[in-house]
Amino acid sequence: MALEALKEALPAYAKDLKLNLSSLERETAMTQQQAWGTWLASALATGVPAVIEAVAAEARQKLEPAAYDAAKTAAALMGMNNIYYRFVHLASAGDYKTMPARLRMNAIANPGVDKADFELWSIAVSAINGCGMCIDSHEKVLREHGVEPAAIQLAVRIAAVVHATARTLAGEAMAENAA
Question: Is 131 a catalytic residue?
Fold first, then answer.
């Protein structure tokens, strides 16, 4: 199991991350597709190869090809949208809020999987990328689709732990190279 290797790679001081990775694998607030799509989209959002490889190996075994690709699509589109909409939200000038984004994002309308699943993956990546405007937008759509708050929170918890794991492993690798 690739996630086990990822846990083993974490240093002793990151014991809580190991425990959180284990407990998140056992959560039941989402379907398997929702959960593993969230894991995959979150891993891709970190940009850390070891984390991406480990999570992708697990996700390939647990997701149908269409869901696997849709999770990757969510990570790619949110990588773009989170930057743009974070800028719109943070810019002092109000002009940008009324201008069309003019960014192609057709897959959001037709992601190839259940819309709620795609939105869960999008909110996880948006949380990692720190785009409040996108978080609000995806959370609203999830609520409209009847997704329970516990599932939404779980998506963000997965994102938080995957992100922290990636940061820790990347930091350890850099410290090791400096030594």
Answer: yes
